[in-house]
């Protein structure tokens, strides 16, 4: 990995209710952190919804034949492995309404949407995917459920259950629907998480929260703002050039400001039958970032390498590993 000299920082902007801290780290300069929120690895009720809008034959067929077009772990891994990079996968552990819902919860439609799309972390297929990702050098992190941002006990349970499947502690993650409460980051820090990657938008992209990760408590807990979510772009299936122009604009801005650009691509968007163009667009972002000499990899790798407090001995070991890692700009592959 190649390190670059810092050009300064705009600070964290936007949300007025959190404490801001000027970053003091000298990271690699321009970097792109790759992330995937695992919201719905199975296509269930969505098939009926999409069938009512367009192409009913395809969507009903995926349900009746029990096809699983949203299970894209192997495809994402193959794409990233081909490019010599890794990424972060954040797994959701949404509680079942049948176990925890009150009468008022049952009468709230949005709660049923979350319930009907949920999956079990300890199911054989999900557990295998978690361990395959972890064993291959990808980061597995927590995707805090919709209410966990305001519920310490719920977030603690979700963290423990994910770590039980994973076999070791997680470093960080992102809240479902990017939802943050007044104490969410304090909960994260108290539970031993080292970072959060939630601040951002599903409708707008850019560096509204600054060009660099920041420390809201002036300690080792770090926040990585979200720069780009795929749904904020023009549909690359019908307007690929427009979508790419926006991505390239963000890459230009990131490179010019030595920014850490965090990208979110939900796994289901790698299904070319339903979301044409998104896989190609994601690949192009990575290729162009690498061509520009950016560091590209998982959020946890960036945190451990450039932001975590280390002893002199650990720092020396990391510098030696970085010097022999291979191609500049790539997150080292195992």
UniProtKB/TrEMBL annotation:
<feature type="region of interest" description="Disordered">
    <location>
        <begin position="1"/>
        <end position="27"/>
    </location>
</feature>
<feature type="compositionally biased region" description="Basic and acidic residues">
    <location>
        <begin position="1"/>
        <end position="23"/>
    </location>
</feature>
<feature type="compositionally biased region" description="Low complexity">
    <location>
        <begin position="321"/>
        <end position="334"/>
    </location>
</feature>
<feature type="compositionally biased region" description="Acidic residues">
    <location>
        <begin position="311"/>
        <end position="320"/>
    </location>
</feature>
<dbReference type="InterPro" id="IPR011330">
    <property type="entry name" value="Glyco_hydro/deAcase_b/a-brl"/>
</dbReference>
<feature type="region of interest" description="Disordered">
    <location>
        <begin position="310"/>
        <end position="334"/>
    </location>
</feature>
<dbReference type="GO" id="GO:0005975">
    <property type="term" value="P:carbohydrate metabolic process"/>
</dbReference>
<protein>
    <recommendedName>
        <fullName>Polysaccharide deacetylase</fullName>
    </recommendedName>
</protein>
């Amino acid at each position: 990995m190649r390190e670059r000299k810092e050009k300064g920082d705009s600070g964290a902007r936007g949300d007025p209710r959190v404490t801001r801290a000027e970053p003091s780290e000298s990271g690699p300069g321009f970097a792109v952190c790759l992330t995937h929120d695992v919201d719905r690895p199975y296509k269930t009720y969505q098939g009926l919804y999409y069938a009512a809008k367009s192409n009913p034959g395809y969507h009903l067929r995926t349900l009746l034949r029990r096809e699983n077009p949203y299970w894209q772990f192997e495809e994402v891994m193959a794409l990233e492995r081909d490019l010599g990079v890794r990424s972060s996968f954040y797994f959701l552990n949404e509680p079942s309404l049948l176990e925890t819902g009150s009468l008022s919860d049952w009468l709230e439609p949005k709660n049923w949407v979350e319930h009907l799309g949920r999956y079990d972390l300890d199911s054989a297929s999900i557990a295998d995917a978690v361990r395959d990702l972890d064993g291959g050098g990808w980061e597995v992190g927590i995707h805090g459920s919709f209410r966990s941002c305001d519920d310490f006990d719920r977030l603690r349970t979700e963290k423990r259950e994910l770590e039980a499947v994973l076999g070791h502690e997680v470093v960080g993650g992102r809240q479902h629907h990017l939802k943050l409460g007044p104490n969410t980051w304090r909960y994260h820090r108290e539970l031993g998480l080292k970072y959060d990657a939630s601040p951002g938008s599903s409708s707008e992209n850019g560096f509204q929260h600054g060009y660099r990760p920041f420390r809201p408590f002036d300690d080792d807990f770090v926040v990585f703002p979200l720069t780009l979510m795929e749904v904020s772009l023009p549909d690359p299936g019908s307007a690929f050039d427009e979508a790419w122009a926006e991505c390239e604009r963000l890459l230009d801005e990131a490179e010019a400001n030595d920014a850490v650009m965090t990208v979110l691509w939900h796994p289901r968007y790698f299904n070319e039958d339903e979301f044409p163009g998104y896989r190609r667009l994601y690949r192009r972002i990575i290729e162009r970032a690498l061509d520009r000499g950016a560091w590209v990899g998982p959020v946890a790798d960036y945190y451990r390498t450039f932001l975590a407090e280390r002893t002199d001995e650990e720092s020396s070991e990391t510098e030696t590993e970085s010097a022999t890692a291979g191609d500049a700009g790539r997150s080292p592959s195992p």
